[in-house]
Design brief:
Bound molecules: manganese (II) ion
Largest interface: A-B, 18 and 18 residues
Number of strands of chain A: 8
Oligomer: homodimer
DNA sequence: ATTATTTTTTAGATAAGTCTAAAAATAAAA
DNA sequence: TTTTATTTTTAGACTTATCTAAAAAATAAT
């Protein structure tokens, strides 16, 4: 079976949306993510259903089939491996990799991706802390929480980000927060839910908008 | 300016064809190379002329403009750098790289290609001995000849191949002929223009079909 | 210089992916 | 439970890149 670049982008979008929601993914949600009109999405959903990549019931949302899920996860695997390549080997910073990886993820060659995986020494996570699916489409989920849910007086390790937009990543760079950074929760302000945190020698206060986009786990 | 994948493939085909011929490149020649019908080619030529990538005069062939030439050469630069990457870093053999490079050459990122170039230590030639254009679109031409024009009793170094099809490259692999191999011309058979050649300890006879596809220069 | 052959262009059609505008179905509100 | 608002689908049109079939121009042959 052969999938076009466009089909792959739809499958990936649907996969990511289905991670957040339990029920079927809605046409509008896909349209927003793909940046297309709902009518275009409807057309594509019919096409993908025809190819047995998802189940589509008019007016109810869609759900990926196992075949569709595997296809989506394979694209995500490629995306994340390329991101590792760009950061580890080509001196890209973590806020520069996404757009290029969006292109590279569609390159079709099984050997290429297997060799790349080996060349990178079989990484388990991408530069943003997201897990890299294995060859069989398995994803190892870690028990991370968002920083905003952290407990007072505890120490956490930064393991990832929820928002991986260039703007947010640059904010983290500016304050020297990276994956692996140790964060000690010094104070919790109930009024606006801001946190005062010690990172190495520095102490800083972060708003809820920031803390709800950083993943941590207890050190 | 932005070029589509299809446009890039046309420009590349026209560039390569124009290397062989002095005059304008014909519609039919392009059609054959691109594997499309002449009518499709005519349509595309109008489009590329509109974008000032080539000059098109009905019924006369086409010629690339400087802008078109630079675009074509940039694609070729990317193609050949990726081929080096695949062979040097990902354990591809020289007969496996072309199809993947055909995809990778269309990835759009100036930083990506500059960093790749540096990562590969600024290679000057691809795995088939073809020169890699520099950032400014300059190509260093070497004074190579085809093996079939070699002189009796002289020693040559293999510097490239004319036919870089997988079949031909596998033939060369089988006989342990690679770029850098030293070839001594032991005998020239006038009747069928076959050559008897010594490669290291081995002696073998090659037909004109073979020798006219190997580039050499005097050692 | 005509006639015949080949090459190239035009005309009209098709498929993929997108859009706008309008209709139909579902969900929310009164 | 009607009415209203939102979501989704359908209908028809557009763009890019392709095709086939036919017309026109350029070459080659008689
Ligand atoms: Mn990404
Ligand atoms: Mn990522
Ligand atoms: Mn190649
Ligand atoms: Mn090559």
């Amino acid at each position: 079976m052969t999938t076009t670049l466009t089909e792959e982008n739809y499958l990936k979008a649907i996969y990511h949306l289905s991670q957040k929601k339990e029920s079927g993914v809605s046409t509008n949600a896909i349209a927003q993510k793909i940046d297309a009109k709902a009518s275009s999405v409807t057309d594509m959903l019919k096409k993908l259903a025809e190819k047995n990549l998802l189940t589509y019931i008019k007016y109810k949302g869609v759900t990926l089939t196992e075949k569709g899920r595997l296809t989506a996860v394979d694209i995500i695997r490629k995306h994340r491996l390329w991101e590792v390549f760009l950061v580890d080997k080509l001196n890209f910073s973590w806020d520069e990799v996404h757009d290029v990886a969006e292109q590279l993820e569609h390159i079709k060659s099984q050997k290429l991706i297997n060799e790349l995986d080996a060349f990178l020494d079989f990484p388990t996570h991408d530069p943003h802390g997201d897990p890299i699916p294995d060859k069989e489409g398995q994803i190892k989920r870690t028990n991370k929480i968002v920083l905003s849910k952290a407990e007072l007086n505890e120490t956490y390790t930064c393991v990832g980000v929820l928002d991986s937009s260039s703007e947010f990543l640059k904010y983290l760079d500016k304050h020297d927060i990276k994956i692996g950074s140790e964060l000690w929760i010094k104070e919790k302000e109930e009024f606006d839910q801001s946190l005062t945190i010690q990172i190495r020698d520095k102490v800083m206060t972060m708003s809820k908008a920031i803390t709800s986009n950083i993943y941590v786990k207890k050190s």
